[in-house]
Amino acid sequence: MRIKRTLATVAAAALATTGLVACSNESEDNATTTAAEGENTTIKIGTTEADQEAWTVFKDLAADNGIELDIVQFSDYSPVNEALAQGELDVNKFQHIKYLAEYNQSAGKDLRVVGSTEIVPLALFWKDHDSLDGIEGESVAIPNDPSNQGRAINVLVQAGLLTLSDNVADELAPTPSDIDKDASKVTVTPVDASQTPNAYNEGRPAIINNTWLDRAGIEPGLAVFEDDPNSEEAEPYINVFAARSEDIDDETLNKLVELWQTPEVEEAVAKDSKGTSVPVYRDKSELNDILDRLQDK
What we know:
InterPro entries: Lipoprotein_NlpA
Number of strands: 13
Membrane topology: Lipid-anchor
CATH class of the largest domain: Alpha Beta
Family: Belongs to the NlpA lipoprotein family.
Organism: Corynebacterium lujinxingii
Radius of gyration: 21 Å
Protein name: Methionine ABC transporter substrate-binding protein
CATH topology of the largest domain: D-Maltodextrin-Binding Protein, domain 2
Helix content: 25-40%
């Protein structure tokens, strides 16, 4: 893997003057040397969230453990996985499992999960309302992107507002055509995710994810309903660290997962998400099983 290591000794400093080459395709025996053995490790990690407080806490904690984080901030989701696949990053943390599965399928790649971080419930908002009372007959704005549309429909199913037809191809990712309109209490209007806050501000009920809640200044506590983060339907939306398949057992990358799951980072994540994030501690093999199931579908 392409991870830089800097020896914390005078001899190492002397070697550095002649140029140290980053490791590539190392054997597992030589993969990662920890700070306890006298070395610091530099990890190049990609994200779209580097401006959040959790990343500052995470970077400082990693440094305390001999890991220097070279954080690469992306303004858009689409290039982050490709940068990882091409070896420009060692790991990334910006996506849920479903998004990773969709990338692998469309790009023909085999990026894998290193570990879990948290899940953020997806919620229904309705301006000037604090319950679902009176929502029957309304048209609910939902995100139209593949990663969120199915989940948004399932939020409304869990709320008892939508009923799916009997022949749904994928119950974890239903589409508007899978809705039994006659048996449902509301209809849906798919829109670009960025437009869901506009629907809310116009007085229409809307499913809004946390990214756009924050940008629109809408308090998460105003939700009238949200999905259950512990349900099977929510599993695809567990946020993860991802790496190339040959690197998922790397000690340093797995150490980063441990550090993200410490109370210090989780407290900062909760602050960034305004209390909506739910930490997830799932075995790596379970997470990759979920990834495989999503890709098979």
